[in-house]
Amino acid sequence: MSENRDSGPAIGRRNLLKAGLAAGATIAVANAGLLGGAGSAAAAEEEIPSLKGKRIAISATGTDHHFDLTAYNAQIDEVKKLGGEPIAVDAQRNDTKLVSQLQTLIAQRPDALVQLLGTLTVVDPWLKRAKDAKIPVFTIDVGTPNSLNNTTSDNWRIGSDLALQLVSDIGGAGNIVVFNGFYGVVPCAIRYDQLKAVIKYYPDVKIIEPELRDVIPNTVQDAFSQITAILNKYPEKGSIKAIWSAWDIPQLGATQALVAAGRTEISTYGVDGSPEVLQLVRDPNSPAAGNAAQQPEEIGRTAIRNVARYLAGQKLPRETYVPALIANKKNIEEVTKTLRLG
Amino acid sequence: MSADIDTLPGYTSGNGTGHIVRWLAGFALRGGSLLAFAALLVFFSVAAPFFFTLGNIGNVLGQSAILGVLAIGLTIVIIGGGANVVKGGIDLSLAANLGLSAAVYATLVSAGYGDGVAIAGALLTGSLIGLVNAIAIVVFGIVPLLATLAVMNVVAGLELVLTQNTVVSASSDFLSLLSAYGPFDIPVLAYVLVIFTGIAAAIIQFTPLGLRLYAVGAFPEAARAAGLPVKRMVAGSYVASGFCGGVAGILSVSYLSGSTTGAGEMLLPVVVTALLSVVFSRRLVPTIGGTLLSTLLVGFLTNGFQLLNISSTLVSGIQGILILLVVAATSLQRGKGAA
């Protein structure tokens, strides 16, 4: 946040971000809204070094989700824009395929490798191999010592702000249902840990055990049936106050299940800012109450600009945080405008 | 059974054009498939110079190890049960078997057990699944397609119970050894695939046991009349296939540094690979060597597409077209339509 304020005159996109900041200040939860870190996304007016003649490997875990697809395409576009040649592969959420592709990418000896998401224990040994093969490794949403720079939303802030929004919405007391199927994916783990850290100080907020496991694929259908089952187990209104998930495709299924069961008194919370979920947040009658909207396009672009900066000899921070916005029923219009989804 | 008998070309008595069409289809399949494979390799080598390097070929071999071992298991079942896709031998539980065996291995290692226990656990799990298949098919007489489909669901459910649908990471000395690079900077998994194929081929193609397995699959009545233990041979083929699932599970744990979800997605590639194997044999029957070639064909296609920066989603489309061609040509060659 500090960098956004301190650095030079803002133009275009940054004005929009500032609008988001203003909107953020008005919402119920303190500090929510524009999130920035020490190494916040750099200003657009800075000269980005060229990637001419450079082959940049882009490895995506999957592109079946708004966040992945947007970040993936933004990376490819940015490499082309900077004059480089993208070698982009998409593992379609198949870990065996992901590892094979990484192995082949490493053997192709690109000038840099950018890994987008992935289960840490699966991708990390291969990122280490790339590093050992002297290929500069960059990551998006994968925190590992084997990467030179990780471009990500500040997941600590996302996690705590979303948790605070949830706790404040339910009045600091009640049972919540939690999807925790992807604790092996670092950003999901951070968001979950932050939720736990927040509710530690609200002893009347209880996570219903056992926690639910969200799955890929068929995430929406699966979340729908899991929530329908748990609603049958807790038929009394008020016995469940909220449903939390570390991303927003389970939130989509959960929200649909609540509507189908007529239990719209329960609120749902998720992360990523998928357009279909933001649409639900906009609907005043929908149980979708909060969503931490990331900026996948900006994240993808920033990661590639970091590659260009590194290859031009500039120093990079360990992490580059791209602001995220907590969308709720009150500020949804401003958030969608800021994300250019409106 | 007549369809099975017809799989051996030259034994069928055709007349006139039907005979010629069948002969042509068979010739085109046998010669054409090898030619097409060679042409593919040449094309990729020219289009992507990096393709034809020892390192890349080694990588493709290593990347094909899991699929190859599973497909060899399925090939054994198809040999022993007959190649009729509906009534013959098939093991749909193989991919789920891989998932559960891998989960057992990873869970044992992360619970502090040594590699020996984990290897035994995975191989036992795989073989047990094979045994359940064998009992369902041989003792209860359920059609393999349905029996193994049911077992597939049970096994996938067990994997969910064991892992809670999460990633179980595992690291051990044996796993590091498997996922490392061996002589000539070629992945150890590549050597594993070659050695495993060699052993399987030796047993299936060059021993009396293997010959009997072919006899049981192609001419069960004759095999029974000749005094071969048909039921025991068929049951054995499913246990062998289950064992392959266990081996593939171990390889998968080393490749992915643990057990992950989504093993079921392997099913279709495994079936495709085993079915494709017939085009790489002289008499258009499933063979272990043919299975290795079809595994590598799929592996090289995927690899070549990645090197050429072409979307890998096209590979599944090409696989589908290949299957259609093979099935069409084998049907023609069996003379179904012409006779």
- Main-sheet strand order of chain A equals 2-1-3-4-5-11
Q: Structural class given helices, strands, pairing of chain B? A: mainly alpha
Number of folding domains of chain A?
2
N-to-C order of helices and strands of chain A: HHEHEHEHEEHEHEHEHEHEHEEH
The separation of the N and C termini of chain A measures 24 Å
Order of helices and strands of chain B: HHHHHHHEHHHHHEHHH
* Overall CATH class of the largest domain in chain A: Alpha Beta
Instruction: Indicate the CATH class of chain B.
Output: Mainly Alpha
Outline of chain B: globular
CATH fold assignment of chain B: ABC transporter involved in vitamin B12 uptake, BtuC
Ends apart, CA distance between termini of chain B? 16 Å
Largest beta-sheet characterization of chain B: 2 strands, antiparallel
Would you identify the CATH architecture of chain B?
Orthogonal Bundle
Question: How many beta-strand elements of chain A?
Answer: 12
Largest sheet of chain A: 6 strands, parallel
Query: Number of helical segments of chain A?
Result: 12
**Share of residues in helices of chain A:** 40-55%
Helix content of chain B: over 70%
Q: Pair with the most extensive interface?
A: A-B, 30 and 32 residues
As for the number of domains of chain B, it is 1
Describe the 3D structure.
Chain A: Belongs to the bacterial solute-binding protein 2 family. The complex is a heterodimer of chains A (342) and B (339). Chain A has 342 residues and is of the alpha/beta class. Chain A has helices at 2-6, 13-26, 66-81, 95-107, 120-132, 155-169, 186-199, 219-233, 249-261, 275-282, 296-311, 332-338; strands spanning 55-60, 85-90, 112-116, 137-140, 149-153, 174-179, 205-207, 242-245, 267-271, 288-293, 319-322, 325-328. In chain A, helix 2 (13-26) packs antiparallel against helix 12 (332-338) and helix 8 packs across helix 9 (249-261). The radius of gyration of chain A is 20 Å and the shape is elongated. The model of chain A is unreliable at 1-43 (pLDDT under 50). Chain B has one domain: Orthogonal Bundle (ABC transporter involved in vitamin B12 uptake, BtuC), CATH 1.10.3470. Chain B has 15 helices and 2 strands. Chain B has helices at 2-6, 16-47, 54-63, 65-81, 94-110, 115-139, 144-163, 173-179, 188-206, 208-218, 220-225, 230-256, 267-276, 288-307, 313-334; strands at residues 168-169, 258-259. A two-stranded antiparallel ribbon of chain B has the order 1-2. At the A-B interface, strand 2, helix 4 and helix 5 of A face helix 3, helix 12 and helix 14 of B.
